[in-house]
Design brief:
Aminopeptidase, 12-stranded mixed sheet, 323 residues, alpha+beta
Length: 323
């Protein structure tokens, strides 16, 4: 494995060029002709309503600090000083929101500067153990579904982004949600990943017909493989295509990385699904700041929700009276 330059692929300039072309900047600290700290961000809004955040399909961003190998007390003091300097260098903004990578566990200088933090979680599968051990840590029901799926389905790595996107789109359609990114956007990311890192697209298909059932798009970077996107043909969902695709993803990632990051979610159903794969819960920090324009927008949205609720209640009562 090549030693990564940053905490994650999401902090790489080429990743940000692909996900936010012309819309990202960074503040950095130099020493001895090299960068020892940086904080990239995307820019949204104008003037007093400027928002600093992170691009779509970018799990984490946040600060990066060069490791010096110093002892704990000295390293912590240095971290506090560097983070404070990065915060002071940020351009004027009304709001800020970023999820920091697991490696960044200190947000105290942000707290001192008026920011807030909410703990979120990602889920990671350790890949240093044998496949037998990894399988044993899966939920019993998952193991049973995997054995059943292996009778009729097979998963392999394919260079078929179009098929994967169709599967990904099907999942959002079942949920009644619009896909939050375009095919063009994903193609843009894919071109950058193929050029600068490595990716694997796992597709699970029917062994007899070749019909695709499920797919996973993974990005390999350093010792971590990120499960960036996934999708299932919802008409075939009960045939456990995702189970066999996930197991193949684990096999592939294990040959490349020490960790498979499932990206996590705060949704109860997704948390259960990740846990059932044997993934471990890892805390990550969402750091934010809300200025007057953002707070005003929050109040407007709250008022709209209340009006919609009141209107819905009036219509219900009117309907009851007319019966």
């Amino acid at each position: 494995m090549n030693k990564p330059r940053y905490y994650s692929v999401f902090q790489e300039p080429w990743w940000l060029d692909a996900t936010a072309p012309g819309q990202w900047e960074e503040v950095s600290i130099q020493s001895g002709g090299e960068t020892i700290a940086r904080l990239p961000f995307t820019l949204e809004g104008q003037s007093k309503n400027r928002r600093l955040t992170q691009p779509a399909l970018t799990q984490t961003l946040g600060p990066w600090l060069k490791d010096t190998g110093a002892g704990y007390a000295k390293a912590l003091g240095r971290t506090n000083l560097l983070l404070a300097e990065l915060i002071d260098a940020l351009p004027p903004h009304d709001s800020f929101y970023q999820v920091f990578p697991p490696e960044m566990t200190n947000w105290l200088p942000f707290y001192w500067s008026g920011y807030t933090e909410t703990t979120r979680y990602t889920y990671q599968i350790g890949l240093d153990a044998s496949l037998d051990v990894i399988l044993s840590e899966m939920d019993k029901r998952n193991r049973s579904q995997l054995r059943k799926a292996e009778r009729t389905l097979a998963a392999q790595v394919e260079d078929d982004l179009e098929t994967f996107l169709a599967l990904n789109r099907s999942t959002f359609e079942r949920q009644g949600r619009a896909v939050p990114y375009s095919d063009e956007f994903v193609n843009q990311i894919d071109e950058a990943v193929v050029k600068n890192a490595s990716r694997s697209i796992v597709i699970a298909r029917d062994q007899s017909t070749g019909v695709p059932h499920a797919g996973i798009y993974m990005v390999h970077y350093g010792n971590v493989t990120h499960s960036l996107m996934s999708g299932v043909d919802e008409a075939l969902r009960d045939q456990n295509g995702m189970i066999i695709a996930r197991w193949k993803a684990i096999e592939i990632a294990r040959g490349r990385s020490s960790i498979l990051d499932l990206q996590g979610s705060m949704m109860k159903s997704i948390e259960r699904r990740n846990r059932n794969y044997g993934a471990h819960q890892v805390p990550i920090m969402a750091v934010s700041k809300r200025g007057p324009y953002a707070l005003r927008a929050d109040k407007v949205q709250l008022s709209k929700r209340r009006l919609r609720g009141a209107w819905s209640g009036l219509k219900s009562r009117a309907g009851a009276l007319s019966r």
